[in-house]
Write a structure and sequence with these properties.
Blueprint: H1 2-11, H2 17-27, H3 39-56, H4 61-76, H5 82-110, H6 112-115, E1 120-123, H7 128-139, E2 144-149, H8 156-165, E3 170-175, H9 180-184, E4 189-192, E5 196-198, E6 201-205, H10 208-217, E7 222-225, E8 231-232, E9 263-267, E10 273-276, E11 279-282
Parallel strand pairs: 1-2, 1-4, 2-3, 4-7, 5-8, 7-10
Antiparallel strand pairs: 5-6, 6-9, 10-11
Helix pairs in contact: 1-2, 1-3, 2-4, 2-5, 3-4, 4-5, 5-7
Amino acid sequence: MIDETAGEIAEMQTHSSSVVAVKAANALTELLDREFPSVGEYLRTLDQNSSALRRANPSHASLHTTQHRIVDQVKGADPTSIDEAKAETQSAIESVVSDVEMAKKEAADNAQSLLAESNTILTHDYSTTVLTALEQATEAGEEFTVYVTEARPRFLGRKMARQLAAIDGVEPRLIVDSAGGQALSSCDHVLVGMSAIVDDTLYNRVGTYPLAATAADANVPMSVLGSSAKVTDGGFSFINDYRSTTEVMREPADEFTIENPAYDATPVRLLESVVTDEGVRNVGEL
């Protein structure tokens, strides 16, 4: 089951990182039904399977953070029996899943102060945390015009626009990625999700960097939303995902090369703030 889940995670290219982290955490429950000759063998198997899940998607910091947390909690409990080790594993998984879901809500809560000052927003790609934040704001009576970039070549922005259209109080406007600079002149704020922040670099869906640079030049503040599990200053090395070239062009390339990176790297200095479940932090505080 865990091998199958690792394969599924490797293919989950259009899912939010929180969904990936929850799926990986729940996959470890499969170990609870196995028989093991000793506590040591159980802990080794837990570590090996957790490593396999982390390797399946090296670009999601939350996947790595939550998997390390589960393994560290079980090992740190120093179980003296297999039953104790399994019980600790179950407890760690439940805690991680609960915290991932709660972190999304709390990050959305913390973004309300930004949204209260913004009527027109530009967002890129697809972010469940941004969606949640806008839903909460409209429930409080706010109304928004939201420009949504297509996020080519997978067109995840189309998915975002459809879900925004279902929210009363939101008027989504879908634009091609290259029209982001044109739309910025009408925007109060740029609000996007994140895959990871490592030290002073934001890693997010490709197209985020030029959008951030353009927003900085246009003096439009840009903030990123996500779980604090995605923010790390060590222990995680981001590895970009280069996806199939057929997403860019279906016919064979003739005498030229096609590259299709999933993410790009944005200097955090281009942002105004990072919003997580731990609060709103201005860039100077990171």
